[in-house]
Amino acid sequence: MVRWGMVIDLDKCTACQACVVACKAENNVPIGGEEEQRSGRQIAWMDIVVKRLDDGEAFLPRPCMHCDHPPCVAVCPVGATYKREDGIVDQDYNRCIGCRLCMVACPYGVRYFNWHAPEWPETYRNYLNPTVPVRPAGVVEKCTFCVHRIERLKHDIMLKKAPPIVLAEAEKSGSLEEAVSSSVDVLMRRLLEKGDEVVEAEDPSRWEDFDFRELNYLPSCVRSCTGRALIFGDLDNPDSVVHKLSRSKRATRLFEELGTEPKVIYLKEAK
Amino acid sequence: MAETRPRYSPTPFTRGSAVFLLFLLAVVGLALYAWMTQLREGLAVTGLNRPAAWGAYMANFVFYISVSMSGTFISAVIRLLKLEWGKPISRVAEILTVGSLLMAALNILFDVGQLWRALVYIPVYGRIQSPVGWDVIVLLFYLLMSLGYLHLSVVPDAAALSEVGGRLSRLYNFLRYDWVGEDWQVHLLENALKILGIVTIPIAIMMHTVTGWIFGIMKSVPTWNDALMGPYFIIGALLTGLSLVVLTSALVRWRYRLKDIMTDHSFVQLSKLLAIFSLAYLYFFMAETFTVRYAALEEDIQVSQFMWVGLYSPLTWYMLASLVIPSVVLLIPRWRSFKTAVAMAAIVLPAMWVKRVLIVVPGLLNQLRLSTVQSATPNYIPTVTEALLTIGSFAGLALVVYVFTKLFPPVPAWELSGVRKLKTSPPSLFSLKSVFLAWAVGISMSAAFVFAWSVSTLGLGKDSALYLYAVRLQELQIFHTPSLTNTPMLNLLAIVVLSGLAVLLFRKIFHGS
Question: What is the pTM of this model?
Fold first, then answer.
């Protein structure tokens, strides 16, 4: 069984907010502005959160934790939010009645309400992502681990339209689930290795055969992270990068005492 | 004893009444306009924001729920304990319950982002696992019980009014059923009201407990996650409800000149209850504050600081003073009178509304739970829209009470001045017995319905299998319309049909041939 999770290495995070912008662009989140910031109505599925510590501040990139025991799912009166079989806590925008019980129940504050209809500058409207629905006023929305990208990966593997590196991996695995799990891991490794290589490469011919679109199966924030601090994958797959990093001594999770079993794992900054 | 009391006679509809009615309608109209604006613009017109996702509407909802405790619950207790002094205020209490439950439901509808979806989806997709599910169910039952109780207790008065004649005699004739004031009818009615009263008491207690649990189960919000919440809400509800009953009764007594019927003695007795409840509430308040201040988690302390010395501290101190004053004043026997009872109720009532705000908002505004860049100083300031809707719902409650007291006696006249034998023969469209049976069967059938639904959704796996199937369909992005086949309601229907068949089979076997 796939169990999607994310590891966030705080040693590598530079708080550059590339993930925040990439998420907004990918998921049709309204850009917002100073007014929204001040009134506490800014929507940012992926957000950089300032955590006050005894000595200074820590910056946490904070997506939805996709808890194994999500308090938001338990309290939803109409089943608009639900946990998928692969562990992603998804939101059905057409079912949501906007009662905001989930916002109150969520200890991580990752659920966002559309106080008014979303607004974009006119020039921007042409660049909205057609694969993600635009939410109306009065519903709650949240990070979905870019579930549409994962679904497209499944779709492309089934139709053999995926890039060769993914199809080669899919050949080896027995089921679709395994195929998706291992191909995401392969893409993740490629992002971690090749991505750095690309940045460092002086000779353009070294990355001529490299298809950047392959990496677009990964969540938008992970894909765009400049420090390679965000690592996505199947926590239950023992060969995956995420699984290995989640066993690190630095690994910790937010508010573990609440028993929500979050699937976003932070690697603490080394002293 | 009953004969010594003066009779109640209906008051005419004067110009003053018309002006008051128009004023109430104007306020309600203004609130409706504000609601329309909110529906058009979204909840952006309110002061709500991300840490403070709930605000004035939720506080109003809890307040109205607690007001509803006053009525049918107190009325049923008065009836079951045969408290003579309580009878004059029981009618006011019952109508306050009905009105405040309606306003509570309305305030929840103000609060949701998608009004039409809330109205359709909660019945169709409602989940019994959600606190909203519990609250909607209990609220509907409490409303049904209160309506039934009020309906039945009004029958003899409607019969008396139908003999007076006038423009509304058709209405009174319909509502008197086959009432002629025979002894067996009085006996039947009193027993019926007792039965409804006995059933109402646990429902009323659950109503307030469940409302407390909406907050009590939120483990992420400091100071909410508290086992005390249910009992705390019940005591708060008794106090709030009682003070509104005292105030409304005083108004009714002044407006309808009922000084001889609603005696000072009744108010003195009520003021004793008021003293007991406010002392009990102070005790709960102290218990809550003490444990938090002495030994609590960091975030609990933070909320407490916010309440006692922070932005909301004037409200807290005001609330505390308004609870201490009545507790002290009403403890002194010499000071207990009609006037002090009304004055103390007038002090308690607004303080209890403020307390609702203090329950809802400070917990949400705490800084410790991942304060973000965007909301560096969490804050909540209500806007004009929220104020208009709040005032409008109070006007709505007043409207319900006022129209009712204009149509029917604001006191149970038949209980106070004895039952009269009526001269005219009733139209007897329905009999009183069948009306009572209709209420009893209707309420127990719907209780069975809800019970079967809950058991089936909880029993058949995590969610019901069909529900999961519906979710699956949505994962696959297959559009579907709400229908019985993909909701928990199908399970419900199946169980109701099966139990019906079982009953038939049972009768066939044991009573057959």
Answer: 0.88
